[in-house]
Amino acid sequence: MDVEYDMIVLGTGLKECILSGLLSVDRLKVLHMDRNDYYGGDSTSLNLNQLWRRFKGDATPPANIGASRDYNVDMVPKFMMANGALVRVLIHTGVTKYLSFKAVDGSYVFNKGKIHKVPSTDMEALKSPLMGLFEKRRAGKFFLYVQDYKENDPSTHKGLDLNIMTSKELISKYGLDDNTIDFIGHAVALYKEDSYLSEPAIETVKRMKLYAESVARFQGSSPYIYPLYGLGELPQGFARLSAVYGGTYMLNKPDCKVEFDGEGKVCGVTSEGETAKCKKVVCDPSYLPGKVKKVGKVFRAIAIMSHPIPNTADSHSVQIIIPQKQLGRKSDMYVFCCSYSHNVASKGKFIAFVSAQAESENPEAELKPGIDLLGPVDELFIDTYDRYEPANDPSSDNCFISTSYDATTHFESTVMDVLSLYTKITGKTIDLSVDLSAASAAEDDF
């Protein structure tokens, strides 16, 4: 291979494919390689036969579950905020034309042993059984303040400087109790644990506004959308974008070895005896194990069911967040459900996932509170994987490594990692401030 590339991207996980697409749009010469013969890497979607091979070896799926081709089971199940960063990247790049989306039916939170709809506006707060009458009034006033708040309009700040005031101080001004703080912080602002309470309140308000704007975008009952045929469609969409702008793809390339020069900087990638030269490498942690550190483990249960999750208003697609305090944990637990209505399972079948950052060595016991919410299941699989983050200095070796996917069932943290890597690679930031309500051409794809 005599060509020298600006960038070689290793792995076809969603993060790597988004970066490949963005860098190709910037007219960089990109070669994208993967040791696998399919797109998606760790974030792929599996049909029924592939799912059985992965978790049960040579066993054959039972006939009553349906045809293998009807299934697209995500290995990293996540919904997209309808007004969030990933949707903005999709519109910014035009990848929406390769995909179709459908609104998610429900957004719920687990509180005091019961599943409740997440209120996202002052009116929903007034109706919520999560709170008593007086608490509803206090919460309603707080939601109203958040809805009216505009960062560039001091008249909406009511004399409060949210860049200095902590989230705890802001919430305390409205006298909200611990239960209300729990669902606001974890199920609306989507924090994974409680450290946000001691940080500036501006980020919490921005996250709450994003949630409400995402709910309002499709006048639905949740802020989330999800692609038809599963998340495996997303990496392929960005791969097409890269190809349109001249990116080259090579799948099924074994033993991709990153090569370094005498100064320790990347200079190419070797596979099957051939070396492709490059100036920089982007990859997932598995391609450079010596330059990453383990930061935890994710436990996940995958269930095939013949019914929706009980107590979710028969929702065909739903997220339930179980805040850490409800289970005495250090981090939240997440329940995700989709179904045949999103073309990811046979008619009448539902796929549910329970995900958590591991806090023990026993996944079955740790995930049990979430699994118990599912009701009867036809089949259950337990998955575990280690999480890694980069430990290198990209400015010294030109290796840009993504962080492993976390346990959350939404994409906000995933896209923040991608945008951070893009800025480190190019020195630029992507303007995602597009007015989505004005993006009428893209609306047809949702």
Automatic annotation (TrEMBL):
Query: Listed GO cellular component terms?
Result: apoplast; cytoplasm
Superkingdom classification of source? Eukaryota
What Pfam families does the record tag this protein with? GDI
Keywords on this record? Answer: GTPase activation
Q: Which GO terms describe its biological process?
A: protein transport; small GTPase-mediated signal transduction; vesicle-mediated transport
GO MF, one annotated term: GTPase activator activity
Coiled-coil regions, chain positions = none
Purpose of the protein: Regulates the GDP/GTP exchange reaction of most RAB proteins by inhibiting the dissociation of GDP from them, and the subsequent binding of GTP.
User: Which family does the record claim for this protein?
Assistant: Belongs to the Rab GDI family.
- Protein name as catalogued: Guanosine nucleotide diphosphate dissociation inhibitor
